[in-house]
Structure formats: C-alpha cells, structure tokens
Amino acid sequence: MREQARARGFDICRITHPGAIPDAPERLRAWLASGAAGSMDWLAATQARRSDPRKLWPEAASIIMLGMSYGPANDPLAALVRKSAGNISVYARNRDYHDLIKGRLKLLAAWLVAQAKGTGVKIFVDTAPVMEKPLAQAAGLGWAGKHSNLVSRELGSWLFLGSIFTDLPLAPDEPEPDRCGTCHACLDICPTKAFPRPYVLDARRCISYLTIEHKGHIGREFRTLIGNRIFGCDDCLAVCPWNKFAETAREAKLQAREDLCAPSIADLLSLDDAAFRALFTGSAVKRIGYERFTRNVLIAAGNSGDLALAGPVAEKLKSPSALVRAMAVWALGRLVSLDDLAEFERRYLPGEADEMVEAEWAAVMGAAPARAMTASAVDLKEGRPS
Predict the structure, then answer these.
(1) How far apart are CA 138 and CA 20, in angstroms?
(2) Is the dihedral of CA 88, 93, 98, 104 positive or negative?
(3) What is the pLDDT of residue 367?
(4) Mean per-residue pLDDT of the chain
C-alpha cells in the first residue's frame, strides 16, 4: 500500500480504524461551545458526522490516511518584511490542493478495488466532515502540535491530508506520540495570540480565519497585526523545529508560482473582479472572492507605510462594496495627512449610506496619528480630491 501511495505522489501512508478517536466527540463539542469556531457554522452543522467516522459511513472497517508535502523552497517568514508586497500562505501559491489530492486519492482507491474485487471505498479531502488530523495522529502520520496542526517526524508540518475509507479490514498502524516536548515556539510567534493554551486554537483571533473564512469587517484590533498577510498565515508552521526535516514539495503543482510569492500590493489593488479571477484561476485564493480579497489587500496597504499606495487605495472609496470602502478608509487613514483625509471625508462621507463605513470615517478622523510626511509630499494621483 505504501509503495502504491508513493507512486501516486503521496509522501506518507498509514492505516487506522474508525473507532480510533473516541475522545473526538467531546473535544469537538467543547471547542464549538466555547465559540472558538467563529462564524464557521458548518462545523456545528456537521458535528455528529464529523466527530465519529462510523456515523459518516457505518460500513467502514479501515481508514487509510495519506499525506502529501507542500514544503516551501524558502523561509515563508522572509516575505513578511516586504511591506509593499502581499504575502500569500504557502499552500495557496499554486494549484488548489483539493482537486490535486482528490485525483490522486481516486487513483489509489482504484488500485485498491482492483486488488480486492467488491471492496467499497470512499475518498475524502478536507471539505468532507472528517476529523483528518486526529485520524492522522491515530494512524501514525504524526501528532497534533501545540499549534493544533499535524507534525510529522519525517516531513515536518507542511502536509496536506486525505483519506480513503474502506470496508476492507486492514491492519492498523501504531499512533504517533506527542513529540513537542517543552517547545512553544509556535505559540510565541502568533501575531494575534490565537492560542489561549497549547493545542487549542481560537479561530476568531487567527489570521488564517480572519483573511479566509471571515466574511465581514475585520476588527481594528487585528488589522495592524495582520501586516502584509493577504491570504492566510504560516507563522506557527514556519517556526516549528521539526521542519528541519521537511523537504520541498516534489509535486510540481504544489511548488510556488513565482508571481504569487510576493505580488505587488499596487498591482493587486489594480485588479478588477475579472482580473482577480484570471490571476487566481486554479488557486485556493479564488474561493474567497474579489471583495474579501480586496479587503485583505487594503489592510496590507495600510500597514505598508508606502505612500505611493495612497492613490490606489483612494480609488477604492468608489467601490460598490461597503466592505471594500470601509477598509479603504482605514488604510487611507494610515497613509495620508489628516488634512488630506479631511478632504476625502468631505467628498465621500455625505453620500455614504453604510453604517460600518461611516464608523470607519469617524474612527480615522477621531485620531490624528503622527505621519512622517506632509500631504503635499503624498502623490494621490487619480484619487486626490478636487
């Protein structure tokens, strides 16, 4: 089985059984009850099936857990210092892994069925209600680190997971013990302090959640902490010492596209919806849509300190999206003088009908942060009010 999995692009393959995670239902219930899932209501809606694989498919006798490395060629943290460029999480810098992993799972499942005629199989990758990380730990792929992600001794923490459920009884592998020891680097580096305690994530504070799953306005307390992260965050993974064993992804479709490693914020702000879709065709970034993506880019622009971005940001004050307009107000407030900001307010606020955008205007005009340059030094180009 392992050789066959390797031949189909997987880096690790282990087996467990459907009853291997008996404590999962209570742990999931407590986590959801705490509110830490934020607005991810689909987790609660699928709670019963998610917490027990036997409820998802009662006929399952074995679960084959598989991992594929997406290890980056370079240190992901290095991109955080390039303030005028956006930082996209490593996993989303090329093809959407859902499609890739699903295709490879189908090939492996077909091989299994060919070996044992009449065998039933079901494949799952991320979008199904399967608790892949606890099952992967039970199967021996790795252990759940203090950042709540899976860590492998052989491959580090850059792993995509997939599973094949089968009614074929297979010998299970031994679980992997926790090897984090006293290390807490992943907890210390988190910009927004999203871990209330080791092994527990509060998604409401997580930059990956805020920039990907969260559909509305991002709280002011998180915006400066987001920095230039426009889709996801890799900090807690990047500092894990077990990644010294990680190898660069051998799957070509998971190796980073050069244009998605550090895209210019100015270029990203120039995208319209069609251009956004064209740039991110086949990428996981596309699924958040143009509005949320632009919201994220505007936050990065506001954090950049790049005064040349004031013009492109100001253009977004004309957006039909209140979410975009609100973030444009916030970003502009960090890039231009208070006098210039007042001119923009006089031009745009009277016609504003959205309460959240009005609240952003009130917030930026109520504070007068020190700015390194005067209004006359800022080239607002097309966005400058008349």
Answers:
(1) 6
(2) negative
(3) 59
(4) 93
Q: Please name which of 92, 152, 175 lies closest in space to residue 126, comparing C-alpha atoms.
A: 92
* Predicted local distance difference test score (pLDDT) of residue 379: 40
Q: What's the CATH class of domain 2-183?
A: alpha beta
Cβ-in-10-Å burial (0-12, 13-18, 19+) of 149 comes to: middle
Q: Which residues are catalytic?
A: 126
Full 3-state SS string of the chain? CHHHHHHCCCCEEEEECCCCCCCHHHHHHHHHHCCCCCCCHHHHHCHHHHHCHHHHCCCCCEEEEEEEECCCCCCHHHHHHCCCECEECHHHCCCCHHHHHHHHHHHHHHHHHHHCCCCCEEEECCCCCCCHHHHHHHHCCCEECCCCCEEECCCECCEEEEEEEECCCCCCCCCCCCCCCCCCHHHHHCCCCCCCECCECCHHHCHHHHHHHCCCCCCHHHHHHHCCEEECCCHHHHCCHHHHHCCCCCCHHHCCCHHHCCCEHHHHHCCCHHHHHHHCCCCHHHHHHHHHHHHHHHHHHHHHCCHHHHHHHHHHHHCCCHHHHHHHHHHHHCCCCHHHHHHHHHHHHHHCCCHHHHHHHHHHHHCCCCCCCCHHHCCCHHHCCC
Task: Spell out the domain ranges in the chain.
Answer: 2-183, 189-245+255-383
Q: What is the pLDDT of residues 325-383, one digit of tens each?
A: 999 999 999 999 999 999 999 999 999 999 999 999 999 998 544 343 333 333 444 44
Asked whether the beta carbons of 156 and 242 are under 8 A apart, the reply is yes
Q: Do 90 and 72 contact (CB within 8 A), yes or no?
A: yes
Predicted TM-score (pTM) of the model is 0.92
CA triple 248-252-254, angle to 5 deg:
65
CA 17 from centre of chain: 29
